[in-house]
């Protein structure tokens, strides 16, 4: 039964993120609709809702809930939450030695022969060699195991997987847009690049290991919620996921709204979908991949890597490989645009390299002109854009194209980017937030889970101070103000996901999706934002999120109804 009546949320400060940058004391909310009736002083809110219950948050500060504009909740949950093993450098495994020590521990503690799935290996940050099957066999000689690279573009597996798949004489022919690693004599070397090959190699293991994928996905959503996120997206949506997402967003205590971007490679990518609760789950657009990842050498960039120990250890080609690293030819991109532009869906293009972005913008401009969309509110997007130049942002603005920046690339890889991976003139400027803001491209921030943990406060701190996880400063000229960074993680993200009329700022008529912080972010040292401004809770439509209740609701769901989700195609991220 829907709640009735009114609620006033009072705080030390309400930071509205509205056009006037107003600050208030209280918010009056209609419980039945979850929409905001008034914003202002407590007296003004009581005048608008005289019978309202008052929820006094004391010294805490309330803002619009954070928006992570580009994520992969189901994939992230399945590959990082138990029974999977998350081995990323930022969750306790900073070096290859740490990873291999964990391998030895797990091999000894898990029942003999049981398959294992690991995720988050980062060859650059951890100083890892390419873990071919002969390398992995040293740690796992008698059980099938696979490791998902942190970029999401490569998967590694041991000889037990090769035998299980019947590939002892060699893997099958390379699928379109993907490839299998091979030795000189044509046998599998335990690598698969891009999703079709990755799933062919390790899909059978996933189905055996992931017994309750709905629960794993819920755990990822809970992690996002604990960090203040109230709305996100799935930028690798396959219709096979719909049953799971529909369940997750239909539970009474669902913590996060989710926009779906369907992969262009699916047969029905242009079709509409129906969800049980379209206010919480909706299809927003079409997703395409221009290039790969800078961390595995597959980004389409115009400049070479530095011939450094890090690059050599990760076995990255010096390059530059430029257009050779594009996943599609320009003709194939134009064909995709011709297929989907007339349908009215928003486009979102994964792109890391500057060469890739030039090609994407060329493709966009052609399609926007051809279908008379220039000057309209199309909101076509480009994702990540770590190597983008300022003039490219200006061109994007002229086309009405928005940019979602992966600040996490600078946070975790910034120390390597500046001089170790690329010349300082390029690496120090990676993720040009200030240039993007100057070009007015409606920039949003994202964490691209599970490539990085979903921690908006960490993104805000890095964007304002240009400090990496180690505390070093790189490219100080690309720092932005806290107000600009907050807008990137609230109203701009909401606009990219098509919901700025409903959420993203605290204004009358909008839904009361809120985040509560322990301190006013404008009152603390910018270098202490993550440490001092703790997330104390979130609200969805004026209702305080109860993650324990959400978890209990998920646990009651029959896992057999969702087991197929463990083997749905998982597409690359960063």
Give the structure's gist in a few sentences.
This protein is an alpha/beta fold and 574 residues long. 32% of the residues lie in helices and 20% in strands. β9 and β10 form a beta hairpin.
Annotate the secondary structure layout.
Elements: E1 6-15, E2 23-30, E3 35-40, H1 42-48, E4 53-56, E5 61-64, E6 66-67, H2 73-80, E7 85-86, H3 96-109, E8 116-121, H4 123-126, H5 133-137, E9 145-149, E10 154-157, H6 159-164, E11 179-182, E12 188-193, H7 195-209, H8 213-226, E13 229-237, H9 242-250, E14 257-263, E15 281-289, H10 309-313, H11 330-340, E16 346-351, H12 354-370, E17 381-384, H13 390-398, E18 402-405, H14 407-417, H15 424-427, H16 433-438, E19 444-445, H17 456-465, H18 482-488, H19 491-496, E20 514-517, H20 529-532, E21 535-540, E22 543-544, H21 547-555
Parallel strand pairs: 1-4, 1-5, 6-13, 7-8, 8-9, 13-14, 14-15, 15-16, 16-17, 17-18, 18-19
Antiparallel strand pairs: 1-2, 2-3, 5-20, 9-10, 10-12, 11-12, 20-21, 21-22
Helix pairs in contact: 2-8, 8-21, 11-12, 14-17
Tell me about this structure.
This protein is α/β, with parallel strands linked by helices and 574 residues long. The chain has a domain at 85-209: Diaminopimelate Epimerase, Chain A, domain 1 (Roll). It has 21 helices and 22 strands. Strands 1, 2, 3, 4, 5, 20, 21 and 22 form an eight-stranded mixed beta sheet that branches. β7 (85-86), α3 and β8 (116-121) form a beta-alpha-beta unit. α14 (407-417) crosses α17. It is globular and about 80 Å long. The relative contact order is 0.16. The mean pLDDT is 94.
């Amino acid at each position: 039964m829907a709640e009735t009546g009114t609620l006033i949320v009072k705080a030390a400060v309400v930071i509205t993120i509205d056009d006037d940058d107003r600050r208030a004391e209280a918010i009056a909310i209609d419980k039945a609709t979850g929409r905001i009736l008034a914003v202002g002083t407590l007296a003004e809110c009581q005048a608008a809702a005289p019978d309202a219950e008052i929820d006094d948050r004391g010294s805490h500060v309330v803002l619009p809930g954070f928006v992570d504009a580009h994520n992969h909740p189901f994939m992230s949950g399945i590959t990082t939450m138990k029974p999977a093993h998350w081995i990323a450098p930022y969750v306790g495994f900073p070096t290859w030695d740490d990873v291999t020590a964990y391998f030895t521990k797990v091999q000894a503690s898990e029942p003999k022969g049981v398959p294992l799935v690991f995720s988050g290996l980062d060859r650059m940050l951890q100083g890892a060699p390419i873990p071919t099957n002969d390398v992995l066999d040293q740690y796992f000689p008698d059980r099938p195991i696979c490791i998902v690279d942190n970029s999401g573009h490569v998967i590694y597996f041991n000889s037990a997987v090769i035998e299980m798949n019947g590939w002892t004489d060699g893997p099958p022919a390379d699928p379109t847009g993907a490839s299998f690693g091979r030795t000189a004599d044509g046998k599998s070397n335990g690598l698969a690049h891009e999703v079709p090959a990755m799933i062919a190699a390790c899909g059978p293991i996933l189905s055996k290991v992931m017994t309750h994928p709905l629960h794993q996905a819920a755990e990822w959503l809970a992690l996002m919620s604990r960090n203040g996120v109230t709305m996100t997206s799935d930028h690798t949506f396959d219709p096979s996921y719909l049953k799971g997402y529909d369940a997750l967003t239909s539970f009474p205590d669902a913590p996060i709204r989710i926009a779906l971007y369907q992969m262009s490679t699916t047969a029905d990518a242009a079709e509409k979908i129906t969800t049980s609760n379209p206010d919480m789950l909706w299809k927003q657009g079409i997703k395409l991949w221009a290039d790969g990842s800078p961390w595995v050498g597959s980004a389409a960039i115009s400049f070479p890597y530095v011939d450094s120990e890090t690059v050599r250890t990760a076995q990255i080609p010096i390059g530059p490989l430029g257009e050779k690293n594009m996943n599609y030819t320009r003709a194939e991109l134009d064909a995709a645009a011709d297929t989907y532009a007339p349908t009215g869906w928003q486009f979102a293009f994964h792109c890391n390299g500057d060469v890739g972005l030039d090609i994407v913008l060329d493709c966009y401009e052609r399609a926007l002109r051809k279908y008379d969309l220039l000057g309209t509110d199309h909101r076509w997007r480009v994702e990540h854009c770590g190597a983008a130049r300022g003039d490219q942002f200006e061109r994007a603005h002229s086309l009405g194209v928005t940019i979602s920046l992966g600040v996490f690339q600078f946070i975790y890889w910034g120390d390597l980017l500046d001089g170790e991976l690329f010349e300082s003139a390029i690496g120090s400027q990676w993720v040009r937030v200030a240039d993007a803001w100057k070009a007015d491209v409606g920039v949003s921030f994202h964490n691209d889970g599970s490539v990085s943990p979903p921690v908006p406060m960490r993104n805000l701190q890095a964007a304002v101070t240009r400090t990496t996880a180690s505390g070093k400063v790189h490219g100080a000229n690309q720092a932005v103000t806290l107000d600009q960074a907050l807008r990137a993680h609230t109203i701009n993200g909401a606009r990219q996901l098509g919901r700025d009329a409903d959420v993203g700022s605290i204004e009358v008529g909008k839904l009361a999706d809120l985040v509560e912080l322990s301190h006013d972010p404008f009152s603390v040292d910018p270098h202490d934002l993550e440490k001092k401004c703790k997330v104390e809770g979130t609200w969805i439509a004026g209702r305080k999120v109860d993650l324990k209740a959400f978890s209990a609701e998920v646990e009651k769901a029959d896992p057999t109804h969702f087991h197929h989700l463990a083997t749905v195609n998982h597409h690359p991220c960063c």
